[in-house]
UniProtKB/TrEMBL annotation:
It comes from the Eukaryota. Coiled coil: none annotated. Pfam families: Acetyltransf_1. It is found in: Cytoplasm; Nucleus. SUPFAM superfamilies: Acyl-CoA N-acyltransferases (Nat). This is N-terminal amino-acid N(alpha)-acetyltransferase NatA. Keywords: Acyltransferase, Cytoplasm, Nucleus, Transferase. Its EC number is 2.3.1.255. The keyword Transferase applies. Belongs to the acetyltransferase family. ARD1 subfamily. GO terms for molecular function: protein N-terminal-serine acetyltransferase activity; protein-N-terminal-glutamate acetyltransferase activity. It comes from Oryctolagus cuniculus (Rabbit).
Length: 181
C-alpha cells in the first residue's frame, strides 16, 4: 500500500472511488477545483498495482478574518481495503500538509449523524470534537455533525523540529553573528 499526494491525472479515479463508497457525490469540476487550488492537500492510497483504493480531498478555508484552517471535503476508502488504517493515514497526511504549507491551526469536516464508523474514526482515533449539529445538511435531509481537530499539537511534533526549549538553549549558546571586526 502506498499513500502519496494526488496528481491531476488521479482526479477521475478519485471521483470513481467516491461514487463507489459514498452517498455524497461531486461533479468533476469540484475535484479539479481542489486539485488545482490546493494541490498539496489531497492524497490517495493506491494498492500494489497502482489502483486507487482511497483518497482524501481537502482544502483551506479562505476566511481572512479567521485563523488559518483546513477542511476535509471528502474521505473514502474502498470496502475491500477498510480496517487497514488507510483513512487515518490519509487524514494525518492531509493535516500535516495543511500545517506545513498553510500554518493551519485546525481542520474541520462534516459527517452524517448516522455514520457510526466514521464518527468512531474521527472522535476516537483522530481526536476530532463535535462543534455543532447542522440540521438537514445533506441532500436527503439528514443532519450532520460539524467537527474540528486541533492541529497545534501535531505542529509541535513535526519530525526534524526541535522542541521549543531546545531552540531556546541553542539561541542562548549561539548568539547571532555580527558583521565587522
Amino acid at each position: 500500500m502506498n499513500i502519496r499526494n494526488a496528481r491531476p491525472e488521479d482526479l477521475m479515479n478519485m471521483q470513481h472511488c467516491n461514487l463507489l463508497c459514498l452517498p455524497e457525490n461531486y461533479q468533476m469540476k469540484y475535484y479539479f477545483y481542489h486539485g488545482l487550488s490546493w494541490p498539496q492537500l489531497s492524497y490517495i492510497a493506491e494498492d500494489e498495482n497502482g489502483k486507487i483504493v482511497g483518497y482524501v480531498l481537502a482544502k483551506m478555508e479562505e476566511d481572512p478574518d479567521d485563523v488559518p484552517h483546513g477542511h476535509i471535503t471528502s474521505l473514502a476508502v474502498k470496502r475491500s481495503h477498510r480496517r487497514l488504517g488507510l483513512a487515518q493515514k490519509l487524514m494525518d497526511q492531509a493535516s500535516r500538509a495543511m500545517i506545513e504549507n498553510f500554518n493551519a491551526k485546525y481542520v474541520s469536516l462534516h459527517v452524517r449523524k448516522s455514520n457510526r464508523a466514521a464518527l468512531h474514526l474521527y472522535s476516537n482515533t483522530l481526536n476530532f470534537q463535535i462543534s455543532e449539529v447542522e440540521p438537514k445538511y445533506y441532500a436527503d435531509g439528514e443532519d450532520a455533525y460539524a467537527m474540528k481537530r486541533d492541529l497545534t499539537h501535531m505542529a509541535e511534533e513535526r519530525p526534524g523540529r526541535a522542541p521549543p526549549t531546545w531552540r531556546l538553549r541553542v539561541s542562548l549558546l549561539c548568539p547571532p553573528a555580527h558583521g565587522g571586526s
